[in-house]
Amino acid sequence: MSKNLAGVYEEYNRYIYHLCLKLTRNAQEAEDLMQEVWVKVVRNEEQVYQVEHVKAWLTTITMNTFRDRYRKNVRRSKYLMHQPETLDVPILDLVPNNDLSTEEQVEKEAVTKIVQEKMKMLDGIYQKTLWYFYVDQYSLVEISNLMKVSIGTVKSRLFRAKARLKEILLADDSVVDGVLTA
Hints:
Layout: H1 3-24, H2 27-43, H3 45-48, H4 54-79, H5 102-119, H6 124-135, H7 140-147, H8 151-171, H9 173-181
Helix pairs in contact: 1-2, 1-4, 2-4, 6-8, 7-8
Domain RNA polymerase sigma-70 region: 9-75
GO biological process, one term: DNA-templated transcription initiation
Pfam family, one: Sigma70_r4_2
């Protein structure tokens, strides 16, 4: 490490550590993160001399390093189960299952049925607009062509239809209790 880089380290070491600690909320992880940050700084030593605001540059490196570690951990946890390493894990357990459970499927179907029933209480124009957009999954342009109105009108109808549907759903106590407690 060069003399100038050592000076940067001395000046900003405590600041970077406290930033890492604030981000991770764990002393050991903060030290690991800080070490990773300083490794990146040493690798890009020539940039240190070109940077006008060293503290801001170091903060950016720290934040980006933290985000990268977080994303990496999220990706890893999606594919690996949290089990002790000594267990034999069948290969199929490592493959994520994105299918809904039976309970989730039944709940989804029940909610869909309730929403469709309440949609029937809307004016025809709002029913059609919601149906085209959410069920048939037409774009705003396609809906505007089908209904022979401007895109702004389609957006307005969607907004009003969703607001009215929400009012209808919230007005029915059985729906509110059943859906919100589930």
